[in-house]
Amino acid sequence: MTRAAWGSRLGFILAAAGSAIGLGAIWKFPYVTAQNGGGAFLLIFLVMVFTLGISIMIAEMAVGQISQQSPVGAYRYFGGRPWSIVGYIGVFCGFLILSFYSVVGGWTVFYIVRSLDTAFLTADAVVLKQIFDTFIADPTEPLWYHAGFMAMTAGVVLAGVQKGIERVSKSLMTMLFLLILVLIARSLTLPGASEGVMYFLTPDFAKVDARMVLEAMGLAFFSLSLGMGCMMTYGSYVSGETNLARSAASVIGLTTGICILVGLMILPAVFAFGLDPAEGAGLTFIIMPMVFSHLGGGQFFALLFFFLLFVAALTSSVSLMEVVTSFFIDEFSLPRIPVAIVMAVLMFILGIAASLSFGPWKGYTLFGMTIFKLLDYVTSHLMMPFGGIMVTLLVGWKACQQVARRLSVDGRPPRWWPLMKPFCRYVAPLLILLVLFQNL
Ligand code: PHE
């Protein structure tokens, strides 16, 4: 069987950016940044993105492209059997992420439905907080949305690489970008908005500690879809001559750009409306309706916003499911359709626990974290950084020559390669380890 492939370099970039840009940039980034005091956190996040992020993305894409295999096979190809364990961990990580990601994806669908109701557009924080809190704590309602979101994810994956992912990714992302610009204009012109801009952009280094650095690193891994083999899998669908470094840079630029724009859309409004920046997971869902209530045609914009947020989430969840399904397809030659369905059901079941942990199961905690929080923490703070260590070590030591050759243009390795090699060999793994150990 010939391996599925992207239609073009643009198709690849859009799909990879579609994977990266999602709930990470629009839901997680703003609330985590706000919780961590703004400016200084943003700066550390950016440092993580432009050091670890860019090199790990290039590393993953190259390893996937050369081996033409999904993570397990790709690690085995370069490192032999023992290394394939890293691939298994990555696949498992994707499984865990999608189980709770789909819960939040379901929230976006709920908010599309809510936007149809005019009474929803209010500037009353108490009402909006209540809508959010009541919904996520409900023992059954969010589960329907979670099921719907998971089913749609599986549906796209079933359509196959080319038709499904590429087509969805190609459209609508531009629209999201334009909409965010409109919303920034509204948010920035609210009275009191400048305080939010200051909060977001002025670093206060007194707030920095080891925990915050780990938060920023975890967020970088999560929002760039790194460390679990997603970019490796997408890279494996690249054929021929595609310039991987340039593609990686485009994906990083697009995603980080969206993160910053989303920060400018949300934080000024948070301050203008007097909401607590430490609000947490509900921040985007509570603050945006307030912005819409101050905007002509607010209901239309609300609908559009939550719809595009849903699409952004879907292109990311599809990439997560692609990692999990392509593992079974590549490793066991199983057919795509039953694999995707069985995996979707299993992830849905684990997601039930994550969803209930906002309501009836709130009290069940481990290390002080609910099931949802624990899944989130273990994946982005431990498993993805671990994957980052391993892929840089692989490229730095085992796959060095092949990757250098693959990245070469006209037979010569790129000018930055002399930096990349020691960075992958020593700096990146040690940096990640240091951040992890500082937190033990
Ligand atoms: N980067 C995605 C987002 O921000 C989440 C994701 C993580 C997707 C890991 C794939 C792999 O929404």
**Topology order in helix (H) and strand (E) letters:** HHHHHHHHHHHHHHHHHHH
Biggest sheet, in brief? none
Q: Under CATH, the topology is which? A: Amino acid/polyamine transporter I
Residues in β-strands, percent: under 5%
InterPro entries: Na/ntran_symport, SNS_sf, YocR/YhdH-like
Main location: membrane
Organism: Oxalobacter vibrioformis
Transmembrane segments: 40-64, 85-113, 143-161, 173-193, 213-237, 249-275, 300-325, 337-358, 378-397
Question: How is the secondary structure organized here?
Answer:
Blueprint: H1 9-20, H2 23-35, H3 39-67, H4 71-79, H5 81-115, H6 125-137, H7 141-158, H8 161-170, H9 173-188, H10 193-201, H11 210-223, H12 230-236, H13 244-272, H14 283-293, H15 298-332, H16 336-356, H17 371-398, H18 400-407, H19 417-438
Helix pairs in contact: 1-8, 1-12, 1-13, 1-15, 2-11, 2-13, 3-4, 3-10, 3-11, 3-12, 3-13, 3-17, 3-18, 3-19, 4-5, 5-7, 5-15, 5-16, 5-17, 6-14, 7-8, 7-15, 7-16, 8-15, 9-13, 9-15, 10-13, 11-17, 11-19, 14-15, 15-16, 16-17, 17-19
The site of phenylalanine has 15 residues, from helix 1, helix 2, helix 11 and helix 15.
What characteristics describe this protein?
440 residues; mainly alpha; Amino acid/polyamine transporter I; 77% helix; binds phenylalanine; Na/ntran_symport; YocR/YhdH-like
